[in-house]
Specification:
Strand content: 35-45%
Distance between the termini: 11 Å
Structural class: mainly beta
Number of helices: 3
Shape: globular
Strand order of the largest sheet: 6-5-4-3-2-1-15-14-11-10-9-8-7
CATH topology: outer membrane lipoprotein receptor (LolB), chain A
Order of helices and strands: HHEEEEEEHEEEEEEEEE
Largest sheet: 13 strands, antiparallel
Helix content: 10-25%
CATH architecture: Clam
CATH class: Mainly Beta
């Protein structure tokens, strides 16, 4: 996740699991997904999710005349079915809002010191596809990707951070995938990797309406569409997570542009928002 018009986190990874490395029989994709979902919550609790609202703080490193420094910024993330997403990041200089309304994607950068100075940009089709995949990941908890033209592929056993895991690829379409490693004993998500090189880990937990979410998501950038340089680490800590609030469509629609908008200061080119976790406890990755 990177800021200024660079980007805003798109975050949340996911959960899952099955099988035992080596001697145990291989688990099917359906079995892995079922175990991953049971780790997150009951089927009734997961099926009831229509929206997720995250409020927290994003910490990342940025350059300064005195050298690199860590900066914390308030962040708010909303996902609402079927494909609506809104991420608002408030930095020292700007308020950056990235929105997705089905197939429409946009980003607005407002200068805090001069309310009349802002920039609005339309997102490119490839970025919109990624935001749609990320939104799906955060609201569907691994189940039903085939209905949107995607697929699930079980790669097999893997050791991650000393944990016996199973590696599974969730592919939405060529170039948009989430590779997840699930603890074989519990279904807990151990690591998520994006197709562009991000490595996402989750810590702690917050329960919301019977669904388990991570309290903290750490993303190590691979020098990709998160706008971060390779090795850049972004941490999002959640203070509050709310399920099933109802958000008006206007929250996600592209802002109206005045007939004669005030001049805006030059702003960096828009980049894909940072990697969020996908799926509660995720994720979102997914994430």
């Amino acid at each position: 996740m990177t800021m200024t018009a660079k980007s805003v986190p798109i975050l949340l990874a996911a959960i899952g699991l099955a099988g035992v490395a080596g001697a145990a029989p291989s688990a099917t994709a359906d079995q892995i997904i079922a175990k991953a979902r049971s780790y997150l919550g009951s089927e009734s609790a997961l099926a009831a999710v229509r929206s997720v609202h995250f409020v927290g703080t994003m910490e990342m490193e940025e350059a300064s005349p005195q050298g690199p420094r860590k900066v914390k910024s308030p962040i708010e993330i909303i996902f609402q079915k079927p494909y609506q997403q809104r991420i608002a990041l408030t930095t020292e200089a700007t308020v950056q809002v990235t929105g997705l309304d089905d197939y429409d994607g946009w980003q607005q950068v407002q200068e805090r010191a001069a309310p009349g100075r802002w920039r609005l940009a339309l997102l490119q089709p490839e970025m919109i596809k990624k935001l749609r995949a990320n939104t799906w990941e955060n609201l569907n908890f691994y189940l039903g990707i085939e209905k949107r033209g995607g697929s699930v592929r079980v790669i097999g056993p893997a050791m991650v951070d000393g944990v016996a895991a199973v590696k599974v690829v969730f592919e939405h379409e060529p170039g948009i995938s989430f590779t997840r490693y699930f603890d074989q004993a519990t279904g807990r998500l151990v690591l998520t990797e994006t197709d562009r090189g991000d490595r996402i880990r989750e810590e702690g937990e917050l329960m919301a309406s019977g669904v388990r979410f991570p309290q903290k998501v750490t993303s190590a950038g691979g020098g990709n569409d998160t706008g971060a340089k390779a090795g850049t680490v972004t941490v999002i800590s959640f203070e509050r997570i709310t399920i099933n609030e109802t958000f008006a469509d206007s929250e996600f629609e592209m802002p109206m542009v005045p007939e004669s908008p005030p001049p805006a200061a030059p702003a960096p080119a828009v980049e894909t928002p940072p990697a969020l976790p996908s799926a509660p406890a995720p994720p979102p990755v997914a994430p």
